[in-house]
Amino acid sequence: MRSDITTSFGDSSGTAEGIPLTFSLTVVDVSGEGDAGSPVAGAAVYAWHCDRDGQYSMYDITDQNYLRGVQEADADGTVTFTSIFPACYPGRWPHVHFEVYPSLEDATSATNRMRTSQLALPQAVSEAVYATAGYEQSVANLQGVTLDSDMVFSDGYALQMAKTSGSVDQGYTATLRVPV
């Protein structure tokens, strides 16, 4: 369980470089009455994404485990991760993967998953980040994909588009409401 996922843990010691991104996911139960839903305190969220080169730790970079982590939702149903802005790699819109579980025990045993989804990052913010050093390959990759052509977001992304604020100099904050 950790909130800062920029560094590796255990036997790995790498740190992901890039523009800071803090993202918060608020898990809400929408099975009851009302449009707002109720917070799911104690739910566990496992989040992961690629680095600024478009590579994933534990897969493309097998000796690192950064940019992945699990957290337990607070009383408001919210988890917050400190990370870096992910790259745009060929064919995929800039995104963060996540899975929601009823509890930490379920998350660590990968059972009873309630939701698997992705957080999409807005185009204007992505373009600003990709104009900085280290993200050069993302410029062309972003020009070659749209939300409508992305293999995940092409079926609709309204519930997956993060609200963002911030700047390249100060870093960005992204938030997303996650209905379960």
Describe the overall structure.
This protein is mostly beta strands and 180 residues long. It has helices at residues 104-109, 123-130, 136-143; strands at residues 20-29, 38-39, 44-48, 68-72, 78-84, 95-101, 115-120, 163-167, 171-179. Helix 2 packs antiparallel against helix 3. The longest helix is centred in the C-terminal third of the chain and has 8 residues, at 123-130. It is globular. The mean pLDDT is 95.
Query: What portion of residues belong to β-strands?
Result: 25-35%
> From the helix content, strand content and strand pairing, which structural class follows?
mainly beta
- Low-confidence segments, ≥5 residues, pLDDT <50? none
Rg (C-alpha, Å): 16 Å
| Rough outline | globular
Oligomer: single chain
Number of helices: 3
Largest sheet: 5 strands, mixed
Distance between the termini: 21 Å
Instruction: State the order of secondary-structure elements, H for helix, E for strand.
Output: EEEEEEHEHHEE
Give the rounded overall mean pLDDT. 95
State the share of residues found in helices, binned by percent: 10-25%
Instruction: Tell me the number of strands.
Output: 9
SSE layout and pairing:
Blueprint (H helix, E strand, L loop, with lengths): L19 E10 L8 E2 L4 E5 L19 E5 L5 E7 L10 E7 L2 H6 L5 E6 L2 H8 L5 H8 L19 E5 L3 E9 L1
Parallel strand pairs: 1-9
Antiparallel strand pairs: 1-2, 1-5, 3-4, 3-6, 6-7, 8-9
Helix pairs in contact: 2-3
